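Journal club side-thread
Mid-discussion, someone asked how the predicted structure for our own chain would compare to the paper's figures. Pasting it here so we can look after the session.
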Amino acid sequence: MLAWVWRYWEKWIGEPLRKVEADALAYRLSDTGRRMDFKTPLVLTTAAICLLIQNYSAHPTDSVAVATWAIQLLWGSEAATEVETLLRRWGSDQLATLLWWGIHAALCYTVLPILLLKIVLRERLADHGLKLHGVLKAWPLYVLFAVIMVPLVGIFSGSEHFQRTYPFFKITSPEQVRGNLWKWELAYAVQFVGLEFFFRGFLVHGTKHRLGVYSVFVAMVPYVQIHFGKPLAEATASIIAGIALGFMSLITRSVWLGAALHIGVAWGMDGACLYRRGLL
């Protein structure tokens, strides 16, 4: 049994991670690696700017001042007033606010990193977690992760804190489930695709040439921080998830299965919480 476990560990995890470390060491010892590395500080600084923008404009009303200033410069005060009215109306509506948050987060996680990679660094997005070829190569790892997460979702969905937190879209009747829940869950999923690209694609693959497997731990720290304010059990589990999904991305060189897994767990938690309330 132990021999079987060791053989599959080496095939799916050990050998791929050693290759990442060997490639990073070879880079650091190369002529290019001995010179100033501009990519690593550019990636990390861009990531910090993205997180800053996301945090300070996550609500429609947070963007009123900047939006009205820009619109007034371009189209005048009347247009600026209309935009302010629209943003404040969205800010007073639960669904509109959540859709803003989901789409806004996805854009913050993707736009600047993609511009940096394509225009400044002139590198392929496929080399930073968005490749599709071979995406199913390490599917057993994701199945194992799902097998672990499904019962945990069922257990924690019954706790008071998780019941208060999920879904973010507060539902009080089955009519709301049938009418608007799908809109929120779609925006929620889009946000997770952006999140996985940012933390497990841009940050991990954008620094692995210099840091090797330790790029996973660099990306894990801000990933845990975005869970502050959520239930303690989830925030604590984000340390493990950040490391595990980061290693999976290194092994597969893709974030797509990680995004699918993340979406599945999130939708499962929302569904389990609603089911326990008798709303499904």
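Post-session note: The chain has one domain: 2-276.
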